[in-house]
Amino acid sequence: WKGAMLFGAPYGDAAGEQKRLAVNAWIRSNRTVHAVLDLDKAVQDPSDPARLDERFDAGDHLHCNSAGYEAMAAAVDISTFA
Fold first, then answer.
1. What is the pLDDT of residue 27?
2. How many whole angstroms separate alpha carbon 23 and alpha carbon 26?
3. What is the average pLDDT across 10-18?
4. How far apart are CA 64 and CA 66, in angstroms?
5. With contact defined as beta carbons under 8 Å apart, do 6 and 14 qualify?
6. Cβ neighbours of residue 59 closer than 8 Å, sequence gap 6 or more
7. What CA–CA distance (Å, rounded) separates 18 from 29?
8. pTM above 0.85, yes or no
């Protein structure tokens, strides 16, 4: 463990990361909803999914910059709302 989980936020810990992963797995596998918009996947670092991709990092390793919000918007299939 690198000591900085939750996309690199310094207050994260291994237990919190396990909870985050469990919640996201539950959301992604939920078949009782019409759709899931996986914004976590849209902005995570492909080489380390526990971290925010540096291209999208606003500087605190937790919140997105404008490019991150654009990446999340691009990940949304608008036909989901039709």
1. 92
2. 5
3. 74
4. 7
5. no
6. 65
7. 16
8. no
How far apart are alpha carbons 74 and 42 in whole angstroms?
8
Helices (H), ranges, 4-82: 14-29, 39-43, 66-75
Task: Note the pLDDT of residue 50.
Answer: 82
pLDDT of 28-63, one tens digit each? 999 998 888 999 999 999 998 888 899 999 988 888
Dig out the tokens for 19 from the structure: 């909870």
Q: What pairs with residue 52 in β-bridges? A: 44
| Averaged pLDDT of the chain | 85
Give yes or no for a contact between 68 and 56, defined as CB atoms under 8 angstroms apart: yes
Neighbouring CB atoms inside 10 A of 72's CB total 18
